[in-house]
Amino acid sequence: MSFVLHVDGERWRAGLDRVVAERPGIVPVIKGNGYGFGRNLLCAEASRLGAPTIAVGTYAEVPEALAAFGGDVLVMEPYRAAIHAGLPDLLNTRLVHTVTTSVDVESLRGVLAEARVVVEGLTSMNRFGAPVGEVGDLAAAADAVGVTLHLPLGTGHVEEIARFIAAVPRVQTWFVSHVSTRELATLAERFPDHTFRPRIGTDLWYADKGSYEVRAHVLDVRPVAKGTRVGYRQRPVAGGHLVVVSGGTSHGVAMESPSSAATLRSRAIAVTEGVLEAAHRVRSPFTVSGTTPRFAEPPHMQCSLLVLPEGATPPRVGDEVPVRMRLTTTAPDAVVIS
Ligand SMILES: *Cc1c(COP(=O)(O)O)cnc(C)c1O
User: Fold this and answer.
1) CATH number given to 211-337
2) Separation of 152 CA from ligand 1 center, angstroms?
3) 251 Cβ closer than 6 Å to some ligand 1 atom
4) Is the CATH number of domain 9-205 3.20.20.10?
5) Nearest CA among 324, 289, 292, 293 for reference residue 209
6) Which of 95, 224, 303, 329 lies in the 20 to 30 Å Cα band around 27?
7) What is the pLDDT of residues 163-208, one digit of tens each?
């Protein structure tokens, strides 16, 4: 059985090339499940794109990134003396660390005197960072190579970034997250002496949404009479065909959070029943014979039972059916680039 992310390589890469051309200084973000493509594949793409620096989410992702990418690796989680001081990779001079306190800077420099750091400012995201009034002193004391700002989703970030720049005018390089192309242009115009480096994942890797697709195999198809009980939970199904497809919880099927459910009704169901329990009440992400059939019951670990209504043409065993999923929570069996 297989649950595969198929990528039209030429088309996908053309999308990446476009984004890189539009966003000078881009720092590709490569973290988590590698946006569904896998982190190593994205590291190879970042090399092809000629990016001098990539950003990873955590120190746990550092060893693989250093092996798969030859340039600088910016770690976006803050370096914390209490957590990371013993990591062997701290000695690697290709790393750029994120710091928010002088205690952490001292610890880092105790391990490697020339360790490079960026200082993260505490923005309206309120995740982590040094308050705007402390960024300048910390950046100067740490001889930081830049300041990083992580902004909430949406727009309207220029004023917030401008406040930081006003407080820390001497820092040249600003790594910014979730800033639009238009906002970047405004910033470049307003602050011609500064360099802005957008850290981008989603808008880069998903630049051309039509260039990739998850497809699952049909493993079995059987007519079922209304009321037939199926599955672990022996629930009665509506009549039609029972279609067994590859793809289950281990691939991330039906694990999406309620806020990503399509309709208010499906969100409400997901909230009251729990996301997985709600699966049989909402449409599955599989497209079979032009419809999106319901789950017969919550997905199993590696396959799912779907009920194709009366009248719909059943697929054949071995057919591939498209699956609509959020790739940041998808774990495909394989990624095939053609
Ligand atoms: C994940 C992350 C990004 C990239 O986010 P996308 O929405 O995928 O572009 C940028 N900056 C920080 C700090 C992040 O954690």
Assistant:
1) 2.40.37.10
2) 10
3) no
4) yes
5) 324
6) 329
7) 999 999 899 999 999 999 999 999 999 999 999 999 999 999 999 9
